[in-house]
Amino acid sequence: MLRIGLTGGIGSGKSTVARMLEAAGFPVVDADQVARDNMAPGSLVLAQVADAFGGDIIGPDGALDRAELARRAFVSEEQTQRLNAITHPAIRRESDRRFAELERQGAQAAVYDMPLLIELGLDQQMDLTVVVDVDAEERVRRLVDKRGLDEADARNRIERQIGDSERRAKADIVIDNNGPLEALEPQVNEVVDTIRKML
C-alpha cells in the first residue's frame, strides 16, 4: 500500500486538501485526530500529559482543556519538546495501527495528514510527500480570521514549526494554496493523477 505524506504549516489548508484526497478515494490517517483520540478522557496519554503540565488541564468532565495545554506547551521550545516526548510515540503507534488496518481492508494508497511529517523525518517513510504551501502572513490572517486565534499566538505557533523553505525542499509535490479554492482544485487533481499512476 502506498503511503502519501501530506503536510504544511499551521493555517495552510492542509486539512482541506486531505478532505479532497479522501473524496477522490484515498483514505486518510489524520495525525491530529489520532492525537485527540489518544487524549480521550481516562486515557494513559492524557494522564501523562496532566502529570507533566498540571492536573488542572483536565476539566471537571474529564476532558482535556486544549487551549490551556497550548498556552503551557507552546511558550518555549523546551515545553513543546516535553509535550512531544509524550504524545509523538503514541501518535506513531496508533497511526501505524490504522495504516495496517487500511491495508488489511484492501486500500491501495492512504494519506498521512501529519503536520510534523518533515520535522520527525517521517517523510523518509512515505512513497510521496505533498506539501501545502502558504505565505506566513497569509497563514496568520487565516488563523486570526477563521480560527479566532490571537495574532501573537498564531505567530508563535508558526515560529515553533520549521521554515517554509525547508518544508518545500523535502516535497515531491508542492501545492500553492495562497489563492482561492478554485485554484486549489486543479492542483489536487494533479496529485490524484500522480498517485494513480504510481499504483
Task: Explain the overall architecture.
- The chain is of the alpha/beta class.
- The protein has two domains: 1-27 and 108-198, 3-Layer(aba) Sandwich (Rossmann fold); 32-106, Rossmann fold (3-Layer(aba) Sandwich), CATH 3.40.50.300.
- It is built from nine helices and five strands, in the order E-H-E-H-H-H-H-E-E-H-H-H-E-H.
- Strands 2-3-1-4-5 form a five-stranded parallel beta sheet, sandwiched between helices.
- Helix 3 (44-53) packs antiparallel against helix 5 and helix 6 packs across helix 7.
- The longest helix is centred in the middle third of the chain and has 28 residues, at 77-104.
- The chain is globular and about 50 Å long.
- The protein starts with a strand and ends with a helix.
- The mean pLDDT is 95.
- It is an enzyme of class 2 (transferase).
- Keywords: ATP-binding, Coenzyme A biosynthesis, Cytoplasm, Kinase, Nucleotide-binding, Transferase.
- InterPro entries: Depp_CoAkinase, P-loop_NTPase.
- One of its GO terms (molecular function) is dephospho-CoA kinase activity.
- ATP binds at residues 11-16.
From the structure above, extract its key features:
globular; 9 helices; 2 domains; 199 residues; dephospho-CoA kinase activity; alpha/beta; five-stranded parallel β-sheet; Rossmann fold; transferase; kinase; 55% helix
Helix-strand layout with pairing:
Layout lengths: L1 E7 L5 H10 L4 E3 H8 L5 H10 L12 H8 L3 H28 L4 E5 L14 E6 L2 H12 L3 H9 L4 H6 L3 E4 L4 H18 L1
Parallel strand pairs: 1-3, 1-4, 2-3, 4-5
Helix pairs in contact: 2-5, 3-5, 6-7
